[in-house]
Design goal:
Layout (H helix, E strand, L loop, with lengths): L3 E6 L4 H12 L4 E8 L3 H11 L3 E4 L5 H10 L5 E4 L1 H9 L5 E4 L7 H9 L3 E4 L2 H18 L3 E3 L2 H9 L12 E8 L17 H5 L8 H9 L1 H13 L7 E5 L5 E7 L4 E5 L4 H10 L13 H4 L13 H12 L3 H17 L7 H12 L8 H23 L1
Parallel strand pairs: 1-2, 1-5, 2-3, 3-4, 5-6, 6-7, 8-9
Antiparallel strand pairs: 8-10, 10-11
Helix pairs in contact: 1-11, 2-3, 4-5, 5-6, 6-10, 6-14, 9-14, 10-13, 13-15, 14-15, 14-16, 15-16
The structure holds nicotinamide-adenine-dinucleotide and magnesium ion.
Length: about 400
């Protein structure tokens, strides 16, 4: 059996690193054939030296010459390309049969859609692309005829607890999908306690080590909101059949509640390599480098309802999903602008949900027609968000 050829989009990130760790454990099964990063040529060159891909892409065209120079200096022979179009072409191209979509943010939309349309096995981490273009991504998948296996840990857990991966929920007797949330670093605090939160405090997640954008999303609970939307699309689950429960130990990664009263859960140590290995090898199981779960040492599993008053972003995500159309794309774009401003020190922590709410009010939902209109609406929402930012906070 020849190894699967894996394109790792976002190779220098947190998910990219975990993916390459699993790949390196199974050279007979997987090969990293395409590696993509945004701007960090040094980190990408180091990965190329180790994994020897066929193609290395740096998304920022200004960095291509620097990448080529570094690879030549290291004696790495591979094709070098740059630009967003090269990323999209590679995701659909002949050098890979599997695509790990691990670019952060709306920047991952085109390549995710392209991989789906081309019928690749799509390992989806880039939740923003399904939050933006849910229906379009599902159409692209049907068109391409490939598999989508989620590697967001909650959705991977649900995938594992359903019969046959992504079946018809009603016919399978599923009553509810229950997404667990760690609660982030500020669990238990009230709005009055969150006025002076710094980016480093928000990024210090108690259980998971992740990129800065998703760490902030976890602190606001927007991450869980995006995941509710993701679950709705991935599993064709009605919004009222999706529930969120806070579980601070992050050992139960999500659950499926069946009509006969059975509740199936997937447990494990909080390490993304479990979900990634599951998705890479499905339907087989492979070693992922994750320590066995020691239940007696952990001793307890706690659960509590989320505090939607303090963590408004989760309520806003539910509302956007109920509003339908492109409201979730507007939510996502406004959130990306807000998180960037918070990380840059120009928006307070509580301003993130305020800004997203204002933009959702300014731009009522419209039907999603095609990718072009979606991208235009994403841009419109970003302009509106920057407008709110300047008027209210600068
Ligand atoms: P990260 O910031 O650590 O890495 C992001 C990667 O994307 C980097 O390799 C970066 O170079 C690349 N990138 C950024 N902009 C790009 C662009 N315009 N073109 C090409 N590449 C670009 O982020 P992460 O934590 O690995 O998260 C990646 C995605 O996975 C996000 O959508 C996140 O929500 C999702 N996710 C992450 C985790 C986690 O544990 N980290 C868990 C579940 C889902
Ligand atoms: Mg998750």
């Amino acid at each position: 059996m020849s190894p699967r050829q894996v394109a790792v989009l976002g190779a220098t990130g947190s998910i990219g690193g975990s993916t390459l760790d699993v790949i390196a454990r199974h050279p007979e099964r997987f090969r990293a054939s395409v590696l993509v990063a945004h701007r960090d040529t040094q980190a990408l060159a180091v990965l190329c030296e180790r994994f020897r891909p066929d193609l290395a892409i740096i998304a920022d065209p200004a960095m291509e010459a620097d990448l080529a120079r570094r690879l030549a200096a290291a004696g790495v022979v591979c094709e070098v390309a740059s630009g967003a179009d090269a990323v999209t072409a590679a995701a659909a191209g002949p050098l890979c049969d599997t695509v790990v979509a691990a670019i952060v943010g709306a920047a991952g939309l085109d390549s995710t859609l392209a991989a789906a349309r081309a019928g690749k096995r799509l390992l989806l981490a880039n939740k923003e692309s399904i939050v933006m273009g849910g229906a379009l991504l599902l159409d692209a998948l049907r068109q391409g005829g490939g598999d989508l296996i989620p590697i967001d840990s909650e959705h991977n857990a649900i995938f594992q607890c359903l019969p046959g991966g992504r079946p018809d929920l009603a016919r399978s007797g599923v009553r509810r999908l229950i997404l667990t949330a760690s609660g982030g670093p500020f669990r238990g605090r009230k709005r009055a306690d969150l006025g002076a939160i710094t980016p480093d405090e928000a990024c210090a997640h108690p259980k998971w080590s992740m990129g800065r954008k998703i760490s902030v999303d976890s602190a606001t609970l927007m991450n869980k909101g995006l995941e509710v939307i993701e679950a709705h699309h991935l599993f064709a689950a009605p919004v009222d059949a999706i529930e969120v429960v806070v579980h601070p130990q992050s050992l139960v990664h999500s659950l499926v509640d069946y009509v006969d009263g059975s509740v199936l859960a997937q447990l494990g140590n909080p390490d993304m390599r479990t979900a990634i290995a599951c998705a890479l090898a499905f339907p087989e199981r492979i070693e992922a480098g994750v320590a066995p779960l020691d239940l007696a040492a952990h001793a307890r599993l706690d659960f509590e309802a989320p505090d939607l008053e303090t963590f408004r972003c989760l309520a806003l995500a539910f509302a956007a999903l109920r509003a339908g159309g492109d409201a979730t794309a507007i939510l996502n774009a406004a959130n990306e602008v807000a998180v960037e401003a918070f990380l840059a020190g120009s928006l307070p922590f509580l301003g993130i949900s305020e800004l997203v709410e204002r933009v959702l009010e300014e731009l009522p939902a419209q039907a999603v027609v095609d990718v072009q209109t979606l991208v235009a609406r994403d841009a419109e929402a970003r302009r509106a968000a920057r407008g709110v930012l300047h008027r209210a906070y600068c």
